[in-house]
Amino acid sequence: MREQPLRDSKTMGRPLPDFASLHPGYGAVLLLLAFLGLLFFTQNAHAHAVLVETVPVDGAVVTEAPREVTLRFNEPVTPVMLRVVDVNAKPLDTQPRVENATIVLPLPPDLPNGTYVVSYRVISLDSHAIAGSVMFSVGDVAPASEAEIETGDVITVLALAAIRALFLAALLIAVGAILALWLIADFAPDAVRCSRITVLAADLAALGLGALLLGVAGCNFAGLPLSGLADADTWRLALSSSLAQSLIVAATGLVLMLAALPRLDHGASFLIAMVGSLMAIGSLALTGHAATAAPQWLMRWAVPLHALCAAFWLGALPLLMSGLRADPPDNAHRYAVRFSAYALVAVSLLLVVGVIIAVVQVQHLALLWRTTYGLVLVGKLVAVVLLLAVAGHNKWYATPLLVEDSINGTAVFIRAVWAEYLLFAAILTFTAMLSQIEPPRSVVARDTGTATGSSAGFRDTQAQGRYRVTLAVAPASAGHNAIAVDVANADGGSVAPREVALELSLPRAGIEPLRRQADRDEAGHFIYHGNDLVLTGRWHIEVHVLIDDFTKTIVPFDVPIR
């Protein structure tokens, strides 16, 4: 069946693609692609991995040598590097075992007294490298070793963030240019030509940057410099990650868009381009901090929707610039008016979804200025506010000026578009930086796991009448802390109280009791998260345990916060 142009040259109305004119072969291919995309998008996603428990605990001094070292994470991980060294940086022979979310490193028998360092580098299921070290001593504590521990290459991390920002920019421009051609330009011949050039350049750039991003991510996973790109093992490691799955879906969508370019103003070709665009945007749901966070029913769709709104805005800028630079700029005002109408919806969704993502990632308002992630997020929010200010300037000043004084209006609008480009560059840079930083929700998860495990910074048990109350604080340092409370009877049997409240005070600093409510988690622990312990010193914490309507016990603890 012959394809028909989507735009009637005699009318200016915006027709929809003639989907009914699709050849059956096209329909079958598109249904298959949609089905494959559904298989990709319905797989389980996972959050950022954190180390929640170590045995022995970090900094422990034990009298007898342990037989093994255990590292427990909050989700399954893929080990890249596991090493145990003594105080002289001599590696110990060990054959690690990976058991779901737990890594066990057997130690040689008759381990001599001294200090040992366990270094690990693993990949989480959201394709982020997690590295760290745990130290323990047998017998006397030995002096600290000056041995170097692999922590990753700084240049590799910076290159990864820069390439990710460029990849996102190219992807969003390619997808947005397709949307802008349909929603703003009415498939005008000049707009089709402009869109073809924009999509071709952005599409090819995204494909090349995606391949480079995968390789550099492999270097980052392995803790290697960029020279690791020449190592086949680096690429094999990268291909085993969820990032590779995401990039494969994105590349498939980008290739579909390229295939549709020659006849972009015809029904079937435009539909193929739209399917490719949605696949490219949908690929962002397969990896990354935000897309893999809980609740999955919300975040899996929030991230692609957020990106789609940004893509429409960013992809429309080349089309607006083309209309403004035409001689005469007849279409500039029409493009600007249509863009403003759709941008109202896009901006509203962008803000709502962006707030949802920020709330999920940060969780506690104080972590917005107490964590590196929060500070970078604030920088991104400032850039977004400035972008909205420029958009308001265009809508209420620059667009009407195009009609009143086309020469000055065009110059004003062009300057504003360049400002939007710069602000988008800043926003995408901040976004790429956020992808390399542990989100506060992971800090909360780590502190919770530590407090309920055996590695809490503070742990003590007090008997009060017929009950024993255990209080654990992690990390027991100034700032965010997780406080866990467990209640048992005199025989050690678990007790499930109706309510647990905490009163936190620091008499030395004149801080009177702050009453906070602890919540029961799925495992039966009572947990409180907060930034109340912001000052160092010996805090007085009273645990108020309501066993039932007639029984209540109050247990005091003195907790040193460093």
Textual characterization of the structure:
With 562 residues, this protein is of the alpha+beta class. Helix content is 47%, strand content 21%. It has helices at residues 24-41, 154-183, 189-222, 232-239, 242-260, 267-282, 296-325, 332-362, 367-370, 372-404, 406-434, 440-452; strands spanning 51-55, 60-62, 68-73, 78-85, 97-99, 102-106, 114-123, 129-138, 458-464, 467-474, 481-489, 499-506, 511-520, 526-530, 537-548, 551-561. The strands form three sheets. An eight-stranded antiparallel beta sheet has the order 9-10-11-14-13-12-15-16, with helices on one face. A hairpin with a 5-residue loop joins β7 (114-123) and β8 (129-138). α2 crosses α11, α3 packs antiparallel against α5 (242-260) and α7 packs antiparallel against α8 (332-362). The longest helix is centred in the middle third of the chain and has 34 residues, at 189-222. The model is unreliable at 8-32, 38-46 and 142-151 (pLDDT under 50).
Major sheet details: 8 strands, antiparallel
- Tell me the fraction of residues in β-strands, as a range: 15-25%
Number of helices: 12
Number of strands: 16
What percent of the residues sit in helical stretches (DSSP H or I)?
40-55%
- Seen as an oligomer or otherwise, the chain set is single chain
Order of helices and strands: HEEEEEEEEHHHHHHHHHHHEEEEEEEE
Strand order of the largest sheet: 9-10-11-14-13-12-15-16
Q: Quickly give the structural class.
A: alpha+beta
Rg over CA atoms: 29 Å
Distance separating the two termini: 75 Å
Would you tell me the overall average pLDDT?
Answer: 83
Unreliable stretches: 8-32, 38-46, 142-151
Overall 3D shape: globular
